[in-house]
């Protein structure tokens, strides 16, 4: 009998995230993601709930309205400035710029548009306003070690390349 996912189990899975309207794959893990069920905030509550009771070999999809995770898109977080006011190292589409507000709180802004005269950055999460589908495959389920429970995931060794925009709470 294979073990099922519940609190305190170490789970390895793979996933891909697709835009539900276009089917375009937005992100995918290249090798297994490991976490301790009930002891990690890496996954969105809707995904954790769907994982409960699953076992190795299970493949399933979870639809997610990203506005529920990130809130609705806020156009006040989109800024355009003269390119001459922007340091050279930020003049590339896709570059992340970390900015702080007057309270010292940091927010990531991504360069989304650029031309000869202006550069536009967007502080909204790239998934705002989208409905996505997480297609997940559970690879293994086992009892987590005390170290893994404390860490919420794997201890030592290489980890998956997680897209920072998705570390969300995926």
Instruction: Assess the beta-strand content as a share of residues.
Output: 35-45%
> Number of domains in the coordinates?
2
How many angstroms separate the termini?
A: 29 Å
Mean pLDDT value: 88
* Percent of residues in helices: 10-25%
**Number of helix segments?**
3
Order of helices and strands: EEEHEHEEEEEH
- Residue windows where pLDDT falls under 50 for at least 5 positions: 159-170
- Report the strand count: 9
So, CATH architecture of the largest domain?
A: Roll
The secondary structure category is mainly beta
Biggest beta sheet attributes: 5 strands, antiparallel
Instruction: Provide the CATH topology of the largest domain.
Output: Chitinase A, domain 3
CATH class membership of the largest domain: Alpha Beta
Shape: elongated
- Radius of gyration from CA coordinates: 19 Å
Would you mind describing this structure in some detail?
Strands 1, 2, 3, 4 and 9 form a five-stranded antiparallel β-sheet that branches. A four-stranded antiparallel β-sheet has the order 5-8-7-6, with no helix packed on it. With 170 residues, the chain is mainly β. It has helices spanning 45-51, 66-70, 146-151, and strands spanning 9-19, 25-28, 33-36, 59-65, 78-82, 96-100, 106-114, 118-122, 131-143. The protein contains three helices and nine strands, in the order βββαβαβββββα. The longest helix is centred in the N-terminal third of the chain and has 7 residues, at 45-51. It folds into two domains: 9-69 and 128-151, Chitinase A, domain 3 (Roll); 74-122, Thrombin, subunit H, CATH 2.40.10.330. The model is unreliable at 159-170 (pLDDT under 50).
């Amino acid at each position: 009998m294979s073990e099922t996912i519940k609190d305190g189990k170490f789970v390895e899975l793979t996933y891909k995230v697709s835009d539900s309207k276009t089917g375009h794959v937005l992100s995918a893990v290249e090798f297994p993601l490991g976490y301790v069920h009930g002891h990690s905030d890496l996954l969105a509550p809707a995904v954790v709930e769907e994982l409960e009771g699953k076992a190795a070999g299970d493949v399933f999809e979870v639809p997610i309205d990203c506005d529920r995770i990130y809130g609705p898109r806020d156009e006040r977080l989109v800024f355009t400035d003269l390119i001459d006011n922007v340091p050279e190292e930020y003049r590339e589409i896709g570059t992340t710029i970390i900015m702080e507000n007057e309270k010292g709180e940091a927010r990531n802004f991504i360069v989304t548009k650029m031309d000869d005269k202006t550069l536009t950055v967007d502080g909204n999460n790239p998934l705002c306003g989208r409905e996505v589908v997480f297609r997940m495959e559970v690879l293994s389920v086992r009892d987590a070690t005390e170290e893994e429970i404390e860490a919420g995931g794997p201890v030592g060794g290489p980890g998956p390349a997680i897209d920072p925009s998705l570390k969300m709470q995926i």
